[in-house]
Design goal:
There is one protein chain. With 333 residues, the protein is an alpha+beta fold. 45% of the residues lie in helices and 13% in strands. The chain is built from 15 helices and nine strands. It has helices spanning 34-45, 73-77, 87-91, 93-107, 123-134, 161-182, 186-189, 199-205, 214-224, 235-241, 243-247, 277-291, 294-307, 312-316, 319-329, and strands spanning 22-29, 48-53, 56-61, 64-70, 110-113, 117-118, 150-154, 232-233, 262-263. The strands form two sheets. Strands 1, 2, 3, 4, 5, 6 and 7 form a seven-stranded antiparallel beta sheet that branches. Strand 3 (56-61) and strand 4 form a beta hairpin.
């Protein structure tokens, strides 16, 4: 059963030019073979698949081009039938690859990467996740070595520094609450993929008078967060805004320029019947709504700064508890 109406929408659904805001979505999973996953997604979207290279398929659909791949470059690029190899190795290459493939598909996540989708179309992902669960897809909780994620790459309403700051402040205030809701699996908690921002940057960010220009914002962030392993990764956005400045701090070929945020925090718990894509999406929408509401954002910043002080309340209550009660008081949860 699908629930198209389960995904809520923020108030701001367009960018400056009046076009629909879009979001790219990345889903990591296991439990289904690569070929079966391609066939399943192809059928779901009535698409046209093209095998681009080993373990990489492009799927043309009415929504755009999806990519389905094994999330491991060494295995994707491995070719034991290469003419440059000795004949003795090539003779056994087929059997060896079958063993490698069987092992890889059990340990390395398969990944579905969506095209940029209009916010209004994200219910399609909710339905796809339901379909894959029924097909036997597995998520992070299935094994200790799984650390599968569900990542969102939401386009911002505009790229003005003041807009970026509002979104970053909303995320900083909600980080502990979001982590409690979407980091349920121990395998993800033990990885470095989803580190919080440095306290030094967050304290600066949450000041009421923090109003940097683009260059200063980038410098403030990159001085203490020169890594893509953050729960909300800003490096793709910064690569889009000012590649030269980014390269003063970070040289990482995995960073792809995108005019979006890169939300890496949620795990993919796809085989859990109570877990839904819409739960992850709707909590992001709460962040969207707070970022767009100046009064509520100012109140959240004030609570955060108060939390940094030494007091009996702060010693006996976690920031997660404080934000949960605050969100409840505002009618968000």
């Amino acid at each position: 059963m699908t629930h198209p109406s389960a995904c809520k929408m923020p108030d701001i659904l367009t960018v400056n030019e009046g076009k629909d805001r879009r979001v790219g979505i990345e889903i990591e999973l296991s439990g289904i073979s690569y070929d079966d996953l391609v066939a399943r997604v192809t059928k779901f979207f009535d698409g046209e698949p093209t095998l681009v290279s080993r373990y990489v398929t492009k799927l043309e659909t009415s929504l755009g081009t999806f990519t389905i791949e094994l999330d491991s470059d060494p295995i994707k690029e491995l070719d034991l039938a290469d003419d440059r190899l000795p004949e003795s190795i090539r003779d056994i290459g087929g059997q060896a690859m079958e063993v490698i493939d069987a092992a890889a598909e059990r340990i390395v996540p398969l990944e579905i990467i969506s095209p940029p989708l209009a916010f209004r179309k994200v219910h399609e992902i909710e339905s796809l996740v339901d379909d894959l669960r029924q097909a036997g897809a597995l998520g992070s909780r299935e094994a200790i070595y799984y650390a599968f994620g569900l990542q969102l790459n939401p386009e911002l309403p505009d790229l003005r520094p003041s807009t970026l700051v509002r979104y970053l402040q909303a995320f900083a205030g909600l980080y502990e609450w979001l982590k409690a809701r979407h980091q349920l699996d121990i395998s993800r908690k033990l990885t470095t993929y989803i580190e919080p921002w440095s306290t030094r940057f967050t304290d600066l960010l949450m000041e009421d008078d923090y109003a940097p220009d683009q260059t200063q914002l980038m410098r403030d962030y990159l001085e203490t967060n020169p890594s893509r392993n953050r729960a909300l990764d800003l490096l793709p956005l910064f690569a889009h805004l000012d590649t030269d400045l980014l390269h003063n701090y970070v040289h990482d070929p995995r960073v792809k320029s995108r005019p979006t945020l890169h939300y890496r925090l949620p795990d993919c718990d796809i085989d859990n019947v109570s877990w839904r894509f819409s739960n992850v999406w709707n909590d992001w929408v709460i962040l969207e709504q707070i970022a767009a509401n100046g009064a509520e954002l100012a109140e959240l910043r004030s609570l955060y700064r108060e939390r940094r002080k030494l007091s009996i309340h702060n010693l006996t209550h976690s920031w997660q508890e404080t934000t949960t009660k605050w969100l409840q008081s505002k009618g968000y949860v």
